[in-house]
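for the writeup, i need someone to sanity check this before i put it in the appendix. the sequnce is what the collaborator sent (i think, or maybe the updated version? ugh). structure was predicted straight from it, no edits. if anything looks off just tell me and ill rerun, i have time this weekend
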Amino acid sequence: MKIFFIGDIFARPGRLLLSNHLETLKRQYEWDICIANAENAAGGKGINYNVACEIFDSGVDAITMGNHTWARKEIYNFIDSCHKMVRPANYPKSVPGKGRLIIEKNGFKIGILNLIGRVYMDPPSDCPFLIADREISFLRQQCQIILVDFHAEATSEKIAMSYYLDGRVSAVVGTHTHVQTADEKIMERGTAYITDVGMTGPSEGILGVDKKQILNKFITGLPSRFEPADGGVFLNAVLINIDENTGKATDIKRISESYKTAADNTIMATY
C-alpha cells in the first residue's frame, strides 16, 4: 500500500498546482491513496465547501486539518456531512466534525487520525497523547493501516509523538510549519516518520505569503493583510510504502516538485 501525503495546501496557487499536476504525479509515483492537509487552502487560512470540492476533484482522497479549522465560518455548514475530512481529534467533544475516519482502497481499510499539538498552539486542546491512545484503540479494531497527521509547532512534541506511537500506527507525519524537514525515517518498530511534510503553494513568499507584507509587519509591527505570494509554486509530500499484512511501513520518501507557475507543466526541480 502506497500513501501519498501532501503538505499544507496554501491558497489558490496550491490548489491550482494540484488541479494541473496531481494526475501526472500519480502516474509517476503510483500511489494507492492520496491524503492532504488543507487547513490553509482557502485564501491561505481555513477552508470552505467549494475549495474542499476542488481539492477532492483534483484527486485527493481525504483531507486533514489543523489550528485554522474554524477560520472560516462556512465550515460549520458542511464539516459534519463531509465524510472525507477530519479535524483534530483532541478538540473538545462538543465541536463539529470528527477526528478520525476510515477509507477503503483496493480492498484494504486505512485509518486516518488528525491530532493537534499543545506547545505554542491555539486554540486550547486536550492531550494529544492520551487522545491518540483512545482513537487508535478504536481504529485498530477495523484497520491494520493507520496514518496520523500531527499538526504541531514544536519539533520536540512531534518527535515525542513518533516514539509514543512507534509500532502502533503505520505513519506519523508532521504538518503546520510549512517547511519540509529532512528527517524522514522508519522507526525501530515499523512506523514511518517525518517532523514536517512542508507545504504546497507559492515558493517565492514567506511560508506562502507575499514577502513584502511579512517584511513590513516584522519591520513596523503594524497589522497587515496577508495575501498569497505570486510567482513559482512547489509541492511538498511524502510517499510511504506500507505492508498491508502487518501495517508496518517499509519505506518513506520525501518529495518536492517545483514549477514556474501553478499551470506550468515544466518541472524546475525534483528531489
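The first strand starts at residue 2 and ends at 6. The CA atoms of residues 119 and 157 lie 7 Å apart.
thx in advance!!
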